[in-house]
């Protein structure tokens, strides 16, 4: 705040010079040019029309007026320093609770490692997890949702995590019993397993839409790992993420030229000017972990 004293920084400079006994030492401590400090202190003396500092040998010491000013100001300056130090310390501390909702497989595949790492590194951090497949909208500034569906979250920040590519898979046992589909039309006659209730499917060949069709699954399970295990046991065919099927060499990909529409996963949270440091740090760690999925 400007006044006859200039601003509060000028008074802080005065106190620093008197404490250090040297303009050069004070400038080094405050990381300011000596010329800047000298100019501002001279301007302060001119405004007050009083000499505050004087040379004594190689040192710069307070005059009687400067000493009185220093003694009056120091308590206030120390309190200001303490308050800002506490503010910075609190800002630097990683603590608090994050409420997170995500599908089971997100936790198993990559988010679980991030959370376990946070629990080990930051004793003040807590998590409240909901592992499900149902859509949930962030309710507080600390809530996070990991999801494929952001259709109802236009007012949120939605950051892309990875793209999920799906092919059609079956087991050798299933194909021996039900035959191998040769065309898209053959798919209508097979026993489908699905991970959600989105049964209207768009098939792509390369970048072009090849077919839109509707599947009627015999079983819906909100866990992609369970679906993979059921396909492996010969209970049906399913759209499975190619990044996971590499772990199951016995599965056979059907109509390999065709893919389901690419699904993009997001991490979603409320928009605010100043995000909590814990949230920002956690989001960045999840994005880093998700990038490994994209590379694979």
UniProtKB/TrEMBL annotation:
Q: Where is the signal peptide?
A: none
Q: Name one GO biological process term.
A: DNA-templated transcription
Spell out the InterPro entries in the cross-references. LysR-type_TF_proteobact-type, LysR_HTH_N, LysR_subst-bd, WH-like_DNA-bd_sf, WH_DNA-bd_sf
Has the keyword Transcription regulation been applied to this entry?
yes
Give one GO term, molecular function aspect: sequence-specific DNA binding
Gene3D superfamilies attached here?
3.40.190.290, Winged helix-like DNA-binding domain superfamily/Winged helix DNA-binding domain
Key words of the record: DNA-binding, Transcription, Transcription regulation
Domain HTH lysR-type: from-to ranges: 7-63
Q: Which PROSITE patterns match?
A: HTH_LYSR (PS50931)
Q: Which family does the UniProt entry place this protein in?
A: Belongs to the LysR transcriptional regulatory family.
- Identify this protein by name: Transcriptional regulator
Origin organism lineage: Bacteria, Pseudomonadati, Pseudomonadota, Gammaproteobacteria, Oceanospirillales
């Amino acid at each position: 705040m400007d006044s006859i004293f200039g601003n509060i920084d000028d008074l802080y400079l005065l106190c620093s010079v008197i404490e250090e006994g040297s303009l050069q030492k004070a400038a080094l401590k405050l990381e300011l040019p000596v010329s800047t400090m000298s100019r501002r202190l001279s301007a302060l003396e001119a405004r007050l029309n009083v000499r505050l500092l004087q040379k004594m040998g190689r040192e710069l010491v307070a005059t009687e007026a400067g000493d009185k000013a220093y003694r009056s100001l120091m308590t206030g300056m120390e309190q200001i320093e303490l308050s800002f130090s506490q503010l910075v310390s609190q800002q630097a501390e990683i603590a608090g609770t994050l409420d997170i909702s995500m599908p089971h497989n997100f936790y198993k595949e990559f988010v679980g490692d991030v959370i376990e790492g946070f629990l080990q590194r930051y004793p003040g951090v807590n998590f409240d997890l909901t592992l499900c497949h149902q859509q949930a909208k962030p309710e507080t500034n600390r809530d996070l949702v990991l999801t494929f569906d952001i259709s109802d979250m236009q007012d949120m920040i939605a950051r892309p995590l990875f793209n999920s590519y799906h092919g059609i898979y079956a087991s050798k046992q299933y194909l021996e019993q039900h035959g191998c589909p040769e065309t898209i039309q053959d798919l209508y006659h097979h026993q489908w397993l699905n991970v959600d209730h989105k049964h209207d499917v768009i098939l792509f060949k390369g970048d072009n839409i090849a077919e839109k069709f509707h599947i009627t699954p015999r079983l819906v399970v909100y866990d992609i790992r369970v679906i993979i295990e059921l396909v492996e046991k010969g209970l049906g065919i399913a759209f499975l993420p190619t990044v996971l099927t590499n772990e199951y060499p016995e599965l056979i990909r059907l109509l390999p030229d065709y893919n389901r529409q690419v699904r993009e996963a997001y991490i979603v949270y409320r928009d605010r000017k100043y995000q909590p440091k814990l949230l920002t740090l956690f989001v960045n760690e999840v994005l880093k972990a998700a990038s490994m999925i994209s590379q694979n």
